[in-house]
Amino acid sequence: MIKTFFAPAEKATDSELENAVKKVREHYVNQPHVQNLLNAIPNILLIFNQERQIVFCSPTFSNLLGVDPKDLLGQRIGEALHCINSTLNLEGGCGTSPSCQYCGAVNSILSGLKGDSNSGECNLIKTDGDAINLAIKTVPLLLDQRQYVLCHFQDISAKKNRDNLERIFFHDILNTAGLVQSFSEALGDEEIDSSASNLVKIIQKNSSAMIEEIRSQQILLKAEAGELTLELQKLESRILITKLVESFSENTLAKNKSIIIDSDTCDITFSSDPGLLGRVLRNMLKNALEASAAGDVITVGCRLKEKQLEFWAQNPSVMPADVQSQLFSRYYSTKGKGRGLGTYSMKLLTERYLKGKLSFISSADKGTIFCASYPIGH
C-alpha cells in the first residue's frame, strides 16, 4: 500500500483508466452539440474518477497548459498544474502530502466523490514558484455504479491580486492623507499670518475631501463584495438633514447656488447606519448640485409616507430620457469617463444594505427629485 498523509494514494490501473475515459466520453462528451458547448466555455471543466484522476478535460484546460489533452488523462489536478505539494510524497502524488489536507481542490473533489456538491478555493504554488488561485465547484456523477465528479475551475488569481492590492492601497493612501490632515490641523493651531492661515484652511479642506473620496470608494468596493456590516444607531431625521446641508456650505459645487430645507421636513427618531445613510444622502445632494446651474435653488427634506421615512432632494433641471434610462448603471455618467458611481452607489447601499428603495422623477414642472425611502425601525 502506498503511504499517504491524507487522501487515498492508489490510482486506477491502465485498463481501468482507459475504460473510464471511454465511458465518460460516450456518456457525456460525444453527445450532439456538447463539443461546441465545451469549446465555447471559457472556464475549465474536468471530470475525475474515484481515484481523483482526470478522465476528461475541456479544451480550455489543455490549451491553457499548452499540452495534448491525452497527456493529462490519468493525472491528478495538482500533478497537471505542477503543484509543489504533489512532489512532497513522490510515490503518492497529489493529495497525499501533509499539506494536502488544507487544499480546497482536493477537499472539493473528495466531497464530490462522496456524492455531495461542493465549492471552495485552492491557493496553489507551482514548482516554478508561480502561484495560482482557483475557485472550484464540484458536482457528483454516477456512471455504471461508479462515482465520478465534475469540477468547474475558474482562475481567480487576477481578482485575488487586485483585492490584495486594493487593501494595501487603501490602507497606505488613507494613512498618508490622514497625516496631511493631522499636520494641517496642527498648523491651524499655531499663530501664523493671514495668508498662511488661508493656505492651511485650503489644505485642511482638500485633505478632508480626499479622505472622504477614498473612503467612499473603499465602501463601494466592500458593498459590491458583500463585505459590509451594518452598525445601527438611533438617528433624528431633521438633525441629519441640517448637518447634511451644513456640510455643503463651503463646497465648490454649491457656489452661487442655494440649498434650502423644506419647511415641512419631519423630525422623527429612527434606526439606521449613519455612515451608509450619510453617504447616500451626500451623493443625493451632490448629484442635485452637479445638475444645477448658478442661481438655482436645491431643496432637501424628509417626510413620513406610508410607514416609510423618505429623504428627498430636488433641483430644477430635467434629465434627458436617455440619461434616465441608464441612471443607475455602473459607470454611466454624463460627466465623462471614470464617473457615474454616485447614483449607482446610492441604489446599492439603499436597496442591498439599508433595505430601502431609491427612486426618482424628472419632468418639466417638477424638475428632478431623488427619493430614498426606508422602513421605520430599520
Counting structural domains, the number is: 3
CATH architecture of the largest domain: 2-Layer Sandwich
Instruction: Kindly report the CATH topology of the largest domain.
Output: Heat Shock Protein 90
Largest beta sheet: what is the strand line-up?
Answer: 2-1-5-4-3
The main sheet comes to:
5 strands, antiparallel
Mean pLDDT: 85
Q: Helix share of residues?
A: 40-55%
Give the SSE string.
HHEEHHHHEEEHHEHEEHEEHHEE
Count of beta strands: 12
Compute the gyration radius: what is it?
A: 29 Å
Tell me the structural class.
Answer: alpha+beta
Shape: elongated
In whole angstroms, the N-to-C terminal distance is: 61 Å
Number of helical stretches of at least 4 residues: 12
Query: How much of the polypeptide forms β-strand, as a percent range?
Result: 15-25%
* CATH class wording of the largest domain: Alpha Beta
List low-confidence stretches: 336-340
Structure, explained:
With 378 residues, the protein is of the alpha+beta class. It folds into 3 domains: 14-155, Beta-Lactamase (2-Layer Sandwich), CATH 3.30.450.20; 159-224; 233-375, Heat Shock Protein 90, CATH 3.30.565.10. It has helices at residues 14-29, 34-40, 59-65, 69-72, 77-80, 104-113, 157-188, 194-224, 237-247, 274-290, 321-325, 342-353; strands spanning 44-48, 54-57, 118-125, 131-143, 146-155, 233-236, 258-261, 269-272, 297-305, 308-315, 357-363, 367-375. Strand 1 and strand 2 form a beta hairpin. Helix 7 packs antiparallel against helix 8, helix 9 crosses helix 10 (274-290) and helix 10 packs antiparallel against helix 12. The longest helix is centred in the middle third of the chain and has 32 residues, at 157-188.
